[in-house]
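Hi all, long-time lurker, first post. I run a small reading group and we've been trying to get comfortable going from sequence to structure in the token notation. Rather than ask abstract questions, I figured I'd post a concrete chain and ask someone more experienced to write out its structure so we can walk through it together at our next meeting. Sequence below, copied exactly:
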Amino acid sequence: MNIAMLLQMAAETFPERVALTSSGTHYTYGEIYTAAQKAAQDFSESGCEYVSVLDVSSAAVPIALFGAGIAGVPYVPLNYRLAADELKDLLERISPVYLITNDDQKQLVEGAGIKKLSSTDRFLDSVLSGENIEIEAAEGGESVAVQLFTSGTTGKPKAAILRHENLVSYILGSVEFMAADEEQANLVTVPPYHIAGISAVLSSFYAGRRIVQLPDFSPEQWVELCESQSVSNAFVVPTMLSRVMEHIEGLEVKPALTSLKAVAYGGGKMPINIIKLALIAFPHVNFTNAYGLTETSSTIAVLDPDDHREANSSDDPEIHRRLGSVGKPLPSVEIEIRDDEGNVMGHNHAGEIYVRGPQVSGEYLERDAKDGDGWFPTRDAGFIDEDGYLFLSGRADDVIVRGGENISPGEIEEVLLAHDDVTDAMVLGIPSDEWGESVVAVVVLAPDVDVHIADLQAMVREKLRSSRVPEQILFEKELPYNEMGKLIRRQIKALFL
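-- Answer (accepted) --
Happy to help. Here is the structure in token form:
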């Protein structure tokens, strides 16, 4: 099945229902599907082998995504925040490409393996006007639907491959067709070059839920759009929710956000104090923690709204700590925790997370990373408790080896974040002549408070043991995160080296 079938089904069922609100303009499912068919014809006639959007969110994003699917060529959105030389390198890797971009970016990348270059406005004018056409979608199944470049923080970005069958499997297994009421709207703030941006388009269109785009996030605009567009659903990364809560706390008149019914979050570790604040401020909102990866076509595990409420209200420490988990696997997904030798670990034993299921691609342009049984090593570290809840403890590569002992940064961070005046924390290992690696930490404090380093060290010593105590603790105003809420660890490590 081709991903374009998801749009076609919606357009044939509710052609006049509004599918997208972008910069104040509304587009129906029928209009988006017709535009995608025209785009597909243009892509095919150009002779391109890839279609790319290098721009912020706009109507061009879903039209190009589905149009590429119809034409049978991979859709490859690019990070518009990259420097010109980085973009040219990526464009050469997807040559010959049909590139849709804004006028400013055109000047940076012109000629870099581009088969056809179109401005975003000109592309939209072309596909949203003129005569309608009917084009049969190319075969889907095992062909490549989307190619996403990884962040490349440890070297040259890898090209993650998502086939039509992976993406369709995720949608059919997690979303009910046209289950949303016509008045429901999903506020999308994540960038279009991230898997969360791709899955937001596919899942919202299949559910019949209008997308409201916010190209450049700000907490003020987020709240304003929630109210003016009667937003019912939203997805945020942890840093976004932190900024929204901070903004709301500073307002004399607090917004009720009565239309908002569900907020999903993911992309990074959510500070416990932030989600607690949100649960108190908006008791009518269903919060869901969604954990997934590019290579798994988005979400593979969720902590659902009932889990949030039960954990937040429970006096049982084992239940209460679930607020820090990512929940349980989706029904179609299997998860295992393995040690360095590949042995499957029991409950509460940390190791690397492996995942298997039809939505799991686990594939790059250069190689297939799955083993012979279809298991994909996520490189995320974590454990599963007796009740099946998955807890993350960082990247497997982030494990600190001190005197031959493996130490998870996540368990120390959890203790530090339990301090009432600590709002954020990161633990890492730095080279040590005596121990191989020593434990250090960077901590962010609440405004206008003073905390002694010795007190934080004593907390860790009491809850864990002396080998886990950070030898150095630095206080910073904030930690560096990327646009998807992931910590940029190399910047923190540079503070100690």
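A couple of things your group might point at:
The mean pLDDT is 93.
The radius of gyration is 23 Å.
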